[in-house]
Amino acid sequence: MDIKIHNSTMLSLTSEHALRALADLARQGAEKTTLARDLAERADVPSHYLSKILATLRRAGMLTATRGVRGGYSLTRDPAHIFLIEVVRLFDGESAHPQCLFGQGRQCSDAEPCHAHEAWKKVKQAFESFLQEQTIATIAGLDAATVGGEKGRDRTAPDAAR
Which of 162, 117, 155, 142 shows the shortest CA–CA distance to 25? Predict the structure, then answer.
């Protein structure tokens, strides 16, 4: 099953690429490493752009990079414990919140609402809940038995993700 997240107005392009790459690595399993060029092709991410994304994910402790003949990238944590919000905040920071539809870049607020404010507020809350509750395993289409059965992965969800 291919994950296609394209041209989202709620996520940056970098976050979209990172989520696709992580979902692909999750589908590969804990024991298999994946070359960056193969990952770039499967995740449909330009390889030069992906290398920067992978470096950030590695520094965040989500990936490991192995050199050599059997080298490549693999997840260091159970994909069922990598929440989407962690990835999105890593690349988008606290600005990982959809902007007002009609605010033309300004912050729409309860004090100064646009005409669509109340309806859009509900959409934003649903989006934020989705990012906080869903994991890489979810978007990779992995079931609990597949993910839980993999060895060598961290089984704890970080407190920051909740």
Answer: 142
**DSSP strand pairing (63-66 vs 72-75):** antiparallel
Q: Each residue of 53-112: pLDDT tens digit?
A: 999 999 999 999 988 887 899 999 999 999 999 999 999 887 666 666 665 556 677 787
Each domain of the chain, given as residue ranges in start order, spans: 13-94+136-150
8 Å CB contact between 56 and 90: yes
* Tokens read off for 65: 């990079």
- 98, burial (CB in 10 Å: exposed 0-12, middle 13-18, buried 19+): middle
Lookup: tokens for 140: 């990779």
Give, in words, the CATH class of 13-94+136-150: mainly alpha
Alpha-helix runs per DSSP H in the chain: 13-28, 36-43, 47-59, 84-92, 117-133, 136-140, 144-148
Residue 155 tokens read as 């089984």
